Amino acid sequence: MPKYITKQTAYMGEIVHQATLASGLTVYILPKKYFAKKYAFFATQYGGIYNDYFLGDDKIHVPHGTAHFLEHQIFEDRHKSNFEKFEELGANLNAYTSANSTVYHFDTVDNFDTCLKLLLDMVQSTDITDDSVAKEKEVIAQEILMYMDEPSWELYNNLYEGLFHVHPIKSEIAGSIESINEITKETILACYHHFYTPGNMSLFLYGDIEIEKTLMMVDEMLSLGYKQNTNKPVLVLPEEPYEIHKKRFDVTKDISKGMVAVGFKSDPNHFNEQKEEKHAALKLALDMMFGRSSLFFLNCYEKGYVTEHFDFDLQIGEGHAFVVIGNETDQTESLYQAILDEVKRCQKSGFEEIDFIRVKRKILGRTIASFNSLQSIAGNLTQSIMRGNDLFRQLEAYKNVTFEQIHQIVNVFFDVENHVISAMQKTPSKER
Question: What's this model's pTM, rounded to 2 decimal places?
Answer without folding.
Answer: 0.93
